[in-house]
Automatic annotation (TrEMBL):
<dbReference type="InterPro" id="IPR008927">
    <property type="entry name" value="6-PGluconate_DH-like_C_sf"/>
</dbReference>
<dbReference type="InterPro" id="IPR006115">
    <property type="entry name" value="6PGDH_NADP-bd"/>
</dbReference>
<feature type="active site">
    <location>
        <position position="189"/>
    </location>
</feature>
<dbReference type="InterPro" id="IPR015815">
    <property type="entry name" value="HIBADH-related"/>
</dbReference>
<protein>
    <recommendedName>
        <fullName>3-hydroxyisobutyrate dehydrogenase</fullName>
        <ecNumber>1.1.1.31</ecNumber>
    </recommendedName>
</protein>
<comment type="pathway">
    <text>Amino-acid degradation; L-valine degradation.</text>
</comment>
<feature type="domain" description="3-hydroxyisobutyrate dehydrogenase-like NAD-binding">
    <location>
        <begin position="183"/>
        <end position="309"/>
    </location>
</feature>
<dbReference type="GO" id="GO:0051287">
    <property type="term" value="F:NAD binding"/>
</dbReference>
<dbReference type="InterPro" id="IPR013328">
    <property type="entry name" value="6PGD_dom2"/>
</dbReference>
<dbReference type="Pfam" id="PF14833">
    <property type="entry name" value="NAD_binding_11"/>
</dbReference>
<dbReference type="GO" id="GO:0008442">
    <property type="term" value="F:3-hydroxyisobutyrate dehydrogenase activity"/>
</dbReference>
<dbReference type="InterPro" id="IPR011548">
    <property type="entry name" value="HIBADH"/>
</dbReference>
<dbReference type="Pfam" id="PF03446">
    <property type="entry name" value="NAD_binding_2"/>
</dbReference>
<keyword id="KW-0560">Oxidoreductase</keyword>
<feature type="domain" description="6-phosphogluconate dehydrogenase NADP-binding">
    <location>
        <begin position="24"/>
        <end position="180"/>
    </location>
</feature>
<comment type="similarity">
    <text>Belongs to the HIBADH-related family. 3-hydroxyisobutyrate dehydrogenase subfamily.</text>
</comment>
<keyword id="KW-0101">Branched-chain amino acid catabolism</keyword>
Length: 316
């Protein structure tokens, strides 16, 4: 069970935020999601200092008006808010180890990455022991939601830090939900992605089976989307190429949510489930399926490439 964790909130920090404030934001991790999120902070008029080891990502952000901080510590030093949008639990731990002692007093660190909820709790407790403030605020809504600033943020942390975080989260998303204490944002996120991994595996299998048995994929998707099989994986992000023009499946499975990231999230859910003894037999099967496609070269493709895998491995 996740223990509830109370964070240290300095009084001046509680008073710091109003939705209309323009603030200094450090932003770490300008990938498929973070690049758009940083852009939206700039569009809202915030001053954004960025760092990412990928030069091209930094160049794009600078062209949009960001400052190249050159390092994570430099991005953190002068920031009122530091946003992290990083790929793995370890990358967040390493980054926080580097910046916690260096960030400005009273600043709020907002981790939007999807990572292990227990690691998040430990980071929050460590930050509190150093007089620093951290919340977890993982997102749903995908790359489209990041671009359109319509993300949902699932926030774990104190009431005061949740309120303060709205100053920047409102520029990047539409729904900002307080889930509870530290780590509960991550709990919400991994439970959602447990469902998503399973539903995408199911839709991929069903769409492929239908196509191989001779039905037109658009006809099948239309039936599913007005029937009991309907879900986000079928009606918004259908994995069969050509069914939805804007879905990654219709552009070679590029530019979305990588299979490696889905495998990571299913593993986070499996580890958390093992920790409390909750059975997830279907989730484990989906994790195994993502393990397999990642090993077979699909790791960098969008996670809806599960369809391509099952299609290419069908006998007929
Ligand atoms: P991505 O792989 O496209 O981007 C990650 C970026 O982080 C890369 O540009 C990489 O160079 C950078 N990076 C790596 N280590 C770094 C460090 N130490 N400091 C600064 N930058 C560093 O990943 P993404 O799709 O943008 O996802 C980011 C996070 O958001 C992940 O935790 C993912 O699970 C989560 N997420 C992704 C989606 C999606 O649809 N892509 C949706 C919801 C949540």
């Amino acid at each position: 069970m996740l223990a509830r964790c109370t964070s240290y909130v300095p009084r001046h920090a509680r008073a710091m935020s109003t939705a209309a404030s323009k603030v200094k934001v450090g932003f770490l991790g300008l990938g498929n999601m973070g690049g758009h999120m940083a852009n939206n902070l700039l569009k809202a008029g915030h001053a954004v200092a960025v760092y990412d080891p990928t030069e091209a990502a930094v160049e794009r952000a600078v062209a949009a008006g960001a400052t190249n901080a050159g390092s994570a510590v430099a991005a953190a030093k002068d920031a009122d808010f530091l946003v992290t949008m990083l790929p793995t639990t370890q990358s967040v731990i390493d980054t926080f180890d580097a910046v916690l002692g260096e960030c400005k007093e009273g600043s709020l660190l907002i981790d939007c990455s999807t990572i292990d909820p227990i690691a998040t709790q430990k980071l929050s407790a460590k930050a509190a022991s150093m007089g620093r403030r951290v919340i977890d605020a993982p997102v749903s809504g995908g790359v489209g939601g990041a671009e359109a600033a319509t993300l949902t943020f699932m926030v774990g942390g104190s009431d005061g830090d949740f309120e303060a975080s709205k100053t920047v989260l409102q520029s990047m998303g539409k729904n900002i939900v307080h889930c509870g204490g530290a780590g509960t944002g991550q709990v919400a996120k991994i439970c959602n992605n447990l469902i998503l991994g399973i539903s995408m595996s199911g839709v991929s299998e069903a769409m492929n089976l239908g196509v191989k048995l001779g039905i037109d994929p658009k006809t099948l998707a239309g039936i599913v989307n007005t029937s009991t099989g309907r879900c986000w994986s079928s009606d918004t992000y259908n994995p069969c190429p050509g069914v939805i023009d804007t879905a990654p499946a219709s552009r070679g499975y590029t530019g979305g949510f990588g299979s490696a990231l889905m495998r990571k999230d299913l593993k986070l859910a499996a580890d958390a489930a093992a920790g409390v003894g909750a059975p997830i037999p279907v989730g484990k099967a989906s994790l195994e399926a993502y393990d397999r496609i990642c090993e077979e070269g699909y790791a960098g493709l969008d996670f809806s490439s599960m369809y391509r895998y099952v299609s290419e491995n069908t006998r007929k």
